[in-house]
Amino acid sequence: MGTCSICKKISATDSDHLHCVEKRRIELENLQLKDTITEKLDLGKDPNNMGKEIKALLGHMNREKDTKSE
User: Fold this and answer.
1) Are the C-beta atoms of residues 17 and 6 closer than 8 Å to each other?
2) pTM of the complete model
3) Which residues fall within 8 angstroms of residue 10, CB to CB, at 6 or more apart?
4) What is the mean pLDDT of each successive set of 10 residues along the chain, which is 70 residues long?
């Protein structure tokens, strides 16, 4: 018996829970995507050159980020 280093709950396998590891991996992927999305879309060159779908997606991601930080 050990504890999960992510959620700090008891783990029967002396290692982190699989669902905790997967959740952390997904969260890190999301952070990396949010950090690199402007580079992928070349928004630094001309921010007005976006489709309305991309603007809506970025707006949604910013609102989601703001609600998590509160």
Assistant:
1) yes
2) 0.49
3) 1, 2, 3, 4
4) 91 91 92 78 63 80 72
